[in-house]
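DM from R.C. (forwarded with permission)

"hey, sorry to bug you on a friday — could you get me a structure for this? deadline for the figure draft is monday and I only need the backbone to look sensible"
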Amino acid sequence: MHTDRISVKGMKDENDAEKVSKTLHSVWGIQQVEVSLLKGEALVSYDEKAASFVDFQQAIRDLGYEVAFSDAPFHADLK
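My reply, with the result:
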């Protein structure tokens, strides 16, 4: 399993954070999602063979938010 921290810009309230969480959970290959409204980011654990950053980016952009890899130093391969 692979984990990335993704910056999500434009979330204004918990409803926005919940929409992002539900949308990311619907992406094939996602194992775990944690969305932080305060930090403006999502921590996403996924199977690299089934999903990629491009999949997350498109799903979040379809909701109307901006997305990028977070500047925060985090990147882990969990097995």
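R.C.: lifesaver. Residues 72-79 have pLDDT under 50 and may be disordered.
me: no worries. The chain has one domain: 2-71.
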